[in-house]
Design goal:
binds pyridoxal-5'-phosphate; 15 strands; 16% strand; 14 helices; single chain; four-stranded antiparallel beta sheet; alpha/beta; 384 residues
Length: 384
């Protein structure tokens, strides 16, 4: 018997109270009972997104809301900027091209954040850009892009929306939509929301809703306007993932009790303890601007990430992710999102120490774990 632990940057370990509630017999979605739950979720999400706008709840993976963030804002031929600094940035480009948009892609070296000055320069040269698409946290490289700085540029442009993929940001790192001036903010259930995959969330600013009025891309299932009309009646346009919404209510309740600010601090603490542990172990942090939602550790040349990850998952029950594309075999990625705590980060570090040792790259045992412990103990409550 192996006890399995999931530390991948999505899907993640599911919140316990959500698991219990989701296991109850299903209810019908066109009922006052479900509408009450749905209303509670829609209200709670506004706080998490930091917005006074409606947060739409779609049934589908995060890419559904990303697709909608193109089709509901743009028309074929429209000029847009996409920031490609990894797998998910590349996805913005691919979706936009599929819908016939005129894409200016800003390529960013993997592991680095985009330069706001480069975005500004591109916008100055192309005043007709309808939207800028980027990630808050580029999960493939564990890098945080400077969203606040980019928003400070786009918020002065009435015809240009800033569209942020916050799928590994909302609920993990600060991303206050209204305060920063983000126009479209997207998230999903299987990352910081610590639910199974299957829900996507999206909110639009007034500027974005205005662009929606003239957006001609074909859209049906992911029609935001139709979804917003349904939300006003405490329901969804189509049959929703009822169980997941029931689970969502439990996560939102817990966040309400803890306080969102405290929750984000907690996530940052898991990240800094993990980074301290990895560095003490002699591993480098891959990103030049690390996100607090996920950490990528650069492995020694002699160790292949895919083999190490397979070993840890299948032999000792610890799930982490290898890299993707050009860094597929060079990094392992550890999530700080999900139903996790400091003990899980110590387990992850122990698993890495075990794996590295077994793959012939001995590390001084306990060194990484001890460094992370120091960080965690420094912020543990005092004894009375
Ligand atoms: C996980 C993730 C997505 C969404 O992918 P889906 O598989 O469609 O849920 C998009 N962007 C980022 C940054 C992600 O981490």
């Amino acid at each position: 018997m192996i006890k399995n632990r999931l530390y991948t940057p999505g899907p993640v370990a599911v919140y316990e109270n959500a698991l219990v509630e989701m296991s109850r017999p299903i209810m019908h979605h066109r009922t006052p009972q479900f509408s009450a739950i749905f209303r509670e979720c829609a209200q709670g999400l506004k706080k998490v997104f930091g917005t006074s706008q409606d947060v739409l709840i779609l049934s589908g993976s995060g890419s559904l809301a990303m697709t909608g963030a193109i089709t509901n804002i743009c028309s074929p031929g429209d000029k847009v900027i996409t920031v490609n600094g990894g797998k998910f940035g590349e996805r913005w480009t691919k979706i936009a091209q599929k819908y016939g948009l005129n894409v200016i892609e800003i390529k960013v070296p993997w592991g680095q954040p985009v330069s706001p000055a480069e975005i500004k320069k591109t916008l100055d040269a192309n005043p007709d850009v309808r939207a800028v698409y980027l990630q808050a946290s580029e999960t493939s490289t564990a890098t945080a892009h400077p969203v606040q700085e980019v928003a400070a540029i786009t918020r002065n442009l009435p015809g240009t929306a800033l569209v942020v993929d916050g799928i590994t940001a909302v609920g993990a790192i600060p991303m206050p939509m209204d305060a920063w001036g983000i126009d479209v903010l997207v998230s999903g259930s299987q990352k910081a929301f610590m639910l199974p995959p299957g829900l996507a969330f999206v909110a639009l600013s007034e500027k974005a809703w205005k662009l929606n009025e003239t957006a001609k891309c074909p859209r049906f299932y992911e029609d935001f306007k139709k979804e917003r009309a349904a939300l006003k009646d405490d329901t969804t346009a189509w049959t929703p993932a009822v169980s997941l919404i029931i689970g969502l209510r439990e996560v939102l309740k817990m966040w309400e009790q803890v306080g969102m600010e405290k929750w984000l601090e907690r996530t940052a603490l898991l990240a800094s303890a993990t980074r301290a542990g990895l560095e003490a172990m002699g591993l480098q942090i891959y990103s030049k601007r690390p996100s607090d939602s996920v950490t990528a550790a650069l492995l020694p040349e002699s160790v292949q990430a895919k083999k190490l990850v397979k070993y840890m998952r299948d032999k000792i029950g610890v799930g982490m992710a290898a890299g993707q594309d050009e860094i597929e075999n060079r990094v392992v990625r550890i999530s700080h999102m999900g139903y996790l705590d400091g003990f899980d980060m110590l387990t992850a570090l122990h698993a890495l120490e075990t794996g590295l040792t077994k793959f012939g790259h001995p590390v001084e045992l306990g060194k990484g774990v001890a460094a992370a412990q120091k960080v965690l103990i420094a912020s543990a409550p005092d004894a009375k």
